Amino acid sequence: MADAPTEAPERNRRRRLFWPGGLSARLLVLTVVFAALGGAMAIPPAMAAYEKQWLLDRVRAAELASLAAEVAPDRVVSEQLKTQLLEGAGVEIVAVSNEGVRRLVFARSRPARAPYLVDLRPKATGLALFAPFQTLLGDGGRVRVVAEPRFRQADFIEFVATDTELKRALASYLWRLVAIVAGVAALAGVIVYFALNLFLVRPMQRITFAMERFRADPEDPEAHIQLSGRRDEIGRAEAELDRMQADLRAALNSRARLAALGEAVAKINHDLKNMLTGAQLASERLAASKDPKVSQALPRLERALDRAVKLAADVLVYGKTEEAAPEAQAVSLSEAVKEAAAEARLAETGVKLVSKVSASDQVMADPDQLHRILVNLLRNARQAIEHQEGRTAPGRVEVSIEAQAGASLIRISDDGPGVPPRIRERLFQPFAGSGRPDSTGLGLAIARELAQGHGGDLSLSVTGEQGTVFELRLPGAPPPRPRARKVKAEG
Fold it and tell me: How much is the pTM?
């Protein structure tokens, strides 16, 4: 068992000796092999046709030789002339069949054993494709050929001859065919190789090299794939690789920024908690003040400080630590919207808040996380309206709620310029969902994460020149809070 890891590399090395590793080399080998196989398939019919034509030539020569007996005086041919005619035709016996009677015309000698038959008449089955190879591999002998006559009236003409010369002719023709097939296969292989290498292999190599360089160094500008503009699968692969590289670079940049942000928050967390603790002590001293304005603003200040201390203590850095599980409870949406609007700096003189939420409407949510979601959405709406170019009228942000299928659907709409088309697809991605240079692009990403932590979601419903609508869906729709009754004092 210990030798198995060392045997595998050796086995792979031996395999590489017999099979090329590169795509181009494999393509060349396979093209030549397939072209050679295609040419080899054409050899048997070509050999059969050559053998048939060779035998037909001998049939015509034997037929012409048989006519000498018809024109000779008294139809008698001398032995010398007969021998010359048979040698010229390359046969040993010539016979003719007419009206069912077979007549021997010339015969040099009788064969020691019966020759094998080859029938070349149209009604016969003809030569099999592998008959020439049987002739080549046979142990020698004589062949009897039967065919229709061309120059005389007869049923058929036949001759008997040795197959030695036929073997030599077939062997010579076979070698010529093999040479032609090998040359054509090599030429076709080279042509197909260069064509496929130009249109397929080279583009695939460019894609492969770009992937390898990108994996080694994503910041390397040479790792960027250059699009060829092709509309086939290669072009689609290039386009998808280009998008994947862009997405990965964006993800790596976001990860680096998140890591840097996490380190920064970790460093200042201790000092921030000390500062907030000091602010809490100062607020406790302000509680002793009898100034009515201080007394009115103090509860809001205390709630803001409590949230800040909790946030700093938990170090809720997006992407580095997970948000705490929400502790859902029935929350008055009207009060939550009022507090979030105050922190988002919505005022009567500037961007105005229009709340269509009644004092009895409630939602199931974690109070602190709901506050953060609403602050992000209201602040984004205010900033979008304030940064709208050419705007003269005051802005308007509207909040409403309705129950849908056992869930609470909160709509936050504004009459701002809308979300730019270039950032709609990545609106909820960290560091990518903001169109302003002074924004980090984390607000909507954090808000959606908090909503999904509740089992709900945050989505962009409508956007355009008339404004934008975000929908916050929270599971559960608690009944409206009962109104407090006024009790009259007696006496």
Answer: 0.44
Examine the fold and report which residue of 224, 258, 276 is the final residue of a domain before the chain moves on.
224
Same domain, 459 and 335: yes
Domain count, the chain: 3
Distance CA(76)–CA(457), nearest Å, equals 116
SS3 83: helix
The answer to whether 234 touches 204, Cβ cutoff 8 Å, is: yes
Reported as a single tens digit per residue, the pLDDT across 399-423 is 999 998 889 999 999 998 888 888 8
- For residue 9, tell me if it sits in a domain: no
Shared-domain flag, residues 27 and 155 = yes
Looking at residue 285, the DSSP 8-state letter turns out to be H
Tell me which of 4-13, 33-42, 217-226, 374-383 is least confident: 4-13
Taking alpha carbons only, the member of 310, 303, 388, 395 closest to residue 340 is 303
Q: CB neighbours (10 Å) of residue 271?
A: 10
Within a domain: residue 3? no
Q: Are residues 61 and 196 in the same domain?
A: yes
What angle is formed at CA 384 by the lines to CA 411 and CA 257, rounded to 5 degrees? Answer: 100
> Strand, helix or coil at 318?
coil
User: What token pair was written down for 70?
Assistant: 């018809």
Partners of 117 in beta bridges? 144
pLDDT tens digit sequence for 141-158: 778 888 888 877 777 888
- Domain hosting 135: range is 19-224
Bridge partners (DSSP) listed for residue 404? 407
Q: Which run of H or of E encompasses 202?
A: helix 202-216
Helix (H) or strand (E) holding 329: strand 329-332
Cα–Cα distance for residue pair 295/84, rounded to 1 Å: 143
Q: Indicate the residue type of 463.
A: T
